């Protein structure tokens, strides 16, 4: 190296020693840093994986609990409503009926028929609560409108829904999941918010469907939703979270800047739903 | 140097290191050709090509470590034989970098030859020990499957 030949031999010796020592120190330092940093990265990844597993476990638990609750409700309905009705019918149509006079027989048969009609209606209601027929036959828009009409009919709260662009229906499974989320949100609003109105709007872009619920009562912000969701009491919110996650969608709880109402927005990707 | 590049290519898990090896080797050969044709004076102690080689090895080693941080294969990086191999060539290249650069001038004084040989010899011993350790780790138990790729040049 020509430019170095101008320096004295002693200086070069120092440069070589210090340079070599410095390079070795840097090399060893870099290797130690890599080892430590790589372990940190791995631990971070493991922690993330564990958190994801815990979250999945939580969702599974919520789903199982929800299923169990539904089963218990159906069992209770069958046991408490359908069971006694059918037992009463059996009483009317027991063997002693043939030994009675014709007028009593006719009255008994008429009563039995009435009770059987009630039982049919009861079973139909139970079936409708499992999957609303309007949703199955006419789609999400009709089912939501139907639900809001019923709420309006109660007179305690003003409810309205408007679908701006929902010409093409989504798959039934997805519509049912969205409907369940909306049902839970609307139920929560009616139960806890003390609002005077609830309004639902639907909009669409090329990639997403947006469903937004406004109400003027006491609502939740995103932080409160995330906090409540992780508590044992937040079963409904857990179900909302797991359904939204299955739909690969997002849900956002907000307070309007004007502080006059709360809104919940669900962003649903269209691509996978058709 | 070709062997070192092939080894680096063999142990690479991402395209970054593979590209680095290819580009680095081409630049190395090109620079070396220019040096030999236009600047080389036939001096035995002129170690400039070795310095080029050192720079390339250092860059490839840093790329390997970067690759390991970005996409770690194992919890303990030092359980990989590749890690010990790269550590060996990295420390050797870093340690000999300055003595190669200054070799032409420094070794004009024969009193420095001993120092040169001491530094070079020590680093070579360390290099060989680490390579031996890497080989030992690679072939310690052939029956056990390892996540790491075998070092093949």
Automatic annotation (TrEMBL), chain A:
Q: Which GO terms describe its molecular function?
A: ATP binding; phosphorelay sensor kinase activity; protein dimerization activity
| EC number, as in UniProt | 2.7.13.3
UniProt catalytic activity: ATP + protein L-histidine = ADP + protein N-phospho-L-histidine
Please list the residue ranges annotated as the Histidine kinase domain.
Answer: 73-272
Specify the enzyme's EC class, one word.
transferase
Under Gene3D superfamilies, the record lists:
1.20.5.1930, Histidine kinase-like ATPase, C-terminal domain
GO terms under cellular component: membrane
- Membrane-spanning residues: 12-36
User: What SUPFAM superfamilies does the entry give?
Assistant: ATPase domain of HSP90 chaperone/DNA topoisomerase II/histidine kinase
Q: Which UniProt keywords apply?
A: ATP-binding, Kinase, Membrane, Nucleotide-binding, Phosphoprotein, Transferase, Transmembrane, Transmembrane helix, Two-component regulatory system
Q: What is the name of the protein in this document?
A: histidine kinase
Query: Mind giving the lineage of the organism this protein is from?
Result: Bacteria, Pseudomonadati, Bacteroidota, Chitinophagia, Chitinophagales
From TrEMBL, chain B:
Asked if Transmembrane helix is a keyword of the record, the answer is yes
Native source organism of the sequence: Lacibacter luteus
The protein here is known as Uncharacterized protein
Q: Where are the transmembrane segments?
A: 21-40, 52-69, 83-107, 119-136
Write the record's keywords in alphabetical order, separated by commas. Membrane, Transmembrane, Transmembrane helix
């Amino acid at each position: 190296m020509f430019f170095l030949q101008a320096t004295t031999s002693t200086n070069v010796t120092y440069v070589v020693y210090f340079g070599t020592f410095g390079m070795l120190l840097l090399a060893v330092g870099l290797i130690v840093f890599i080892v430590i940093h790589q372990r940190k990265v791995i631990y971070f990844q493991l922690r993330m994986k564990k958190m994801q597993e815990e979250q999945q476990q939580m969702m599974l638990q919520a789903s199982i609990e929800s299923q169990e609750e539904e089963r218990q409700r159906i069992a209770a309905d069958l046991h408490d409503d359908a069971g006694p009705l059918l037992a009463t019918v059996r009483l009317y149509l027991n063997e002693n009926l043939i030994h009675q006079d014709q007028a009593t027989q006719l009255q008994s048969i008429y009563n039995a028929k009435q009770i059987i009609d009630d039982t049919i209606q009861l079973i139909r209601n139970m079936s409708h609560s499992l999957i609303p027929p309007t949703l199955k036959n006419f789609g999400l828009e009709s089912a939501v409108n139907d639900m809001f009409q019923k709420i309006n009919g109660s007179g305690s709260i003003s409810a309205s829904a408007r679908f701006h662009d929902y010409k093409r229906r989504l798959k039934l499974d997805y519509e049912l999941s969205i409907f369940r989320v909306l049902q839970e949100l609307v139920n929560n609003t009616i139960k806890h918010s003390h609002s005077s109105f609830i309004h639902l709007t639907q909009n669409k872009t090329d990639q997403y469907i947006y469903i937004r619920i406004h109400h003027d009562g006491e609502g939740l912000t995103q932080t409160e939703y995330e906090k409540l969701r992780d508590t044992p009491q937040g079963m409904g919110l857990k179900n909302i979270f797991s359904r939204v996650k299955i739909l690969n969608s997002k849900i956002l709880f907000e307070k309007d800047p004007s502080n006059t109402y709360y809104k919940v927005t669900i962003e649903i990707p269209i691509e996978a739903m058709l | 140097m070709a062997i070192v590049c092939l080894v680096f290519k063999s142990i690479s898990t991402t395209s970054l290191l593979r590209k680095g090896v290819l580009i680095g080797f081409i630049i190395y050969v090109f620079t070396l050709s220019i040096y030999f044709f236009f600047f080389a004076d036939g001096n035995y102690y002129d170690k400039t090509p070795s310095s080029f080689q050192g720079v390339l090895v250092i860059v490839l080693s840093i790329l390997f470590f970067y690759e390991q941080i970005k996409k770690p294969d194992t919890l303990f990086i030092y359980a990989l034989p590749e890690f010990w191999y790269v550590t060996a060539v990295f420390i050797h290249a870093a340690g000999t970098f300055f003595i190669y650069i200054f070799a032409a001038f420094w070794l004009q004084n024969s009193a420095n030859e001993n120092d040169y040989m001491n530094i070079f010899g020590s680093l070579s011993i360390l290099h060989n020990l680490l390579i031996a350790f890497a080989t030992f780790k690679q072939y310690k138990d052939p029956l056990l499957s390892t996540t790491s790729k075998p070092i093949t040049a």
